[in-house]
Amino acid sequence: LDTLEKWVTEIFSEIPNNGLPKPSFGHLTQPFDTPEFHKLYRVVPIRKVHSLTITWALPPQEQYYRVKPLHYISWLVGHEGKGSVLSFLRKKFWALALYGGNGETGFEQNSTYSIFSISVTLTDEGYKHFYEVAHVVFQYVKMLQKRGPDKRQVIWEEIQKIEANEFHYQEQTDPVDYVESLCENMQLFQKEDFLTGDQLLFEYKPEV
């Protein structure tokens, strides 16, 4: 560590600190509030696969990284057990898989907006009924919205424990990739959260 610290000091200490604040593009609000966004697009796939993707553009969520509200919602949407969206669609023979979420960086999350997507891998029969599939997804999201998260802290704590276990027992990554990840985290999180901000859940805030 002493050697590494010496190298870092030698290499980086001459870089001037201009005292400039982190750039923010928060003034560029609602970039997807256009007629083109509120449409259904059909794309012919290269592989023989049917996929339905529903995308919402939300206000920026990066400030809530200690809560991770979109991770919480994606956990509920992606649940595969009894009463889940996927369970219902599978009984109809309309879907093979379903996942939802936000990458929490880059195009999917920044100081202007956050993207939340739900993708459903459809069967041939499901493709014929994709309007009904979309309706079921919207019904489920509406149900979550109506019920609210107040009574669901147990679910949040379960997610928190699973993410903590994955963090503590993760495989060692390539050092170059790890440094690159940390450098990116330094632009997104508070100093004490550089190592953990992109993985752990810290606070339960149902209002968020």
UniProtKB/TrEMBL annotation:
Biological processes annotated in GO: proteolysis
Keyword Metal-binding found: yes
Any one GO MF annotation of this record: metallopeptidase activity
Occurrences of domain Peptidase M16 middle/third (ranges): 167-207
All copies of domain Peptidase M16 C-terminal, residue ranges: 2-153
Family: Belongs to the peptidase M16 family.
Protein name: NRDC protein
Gene that produces this protein: Nrdc_0
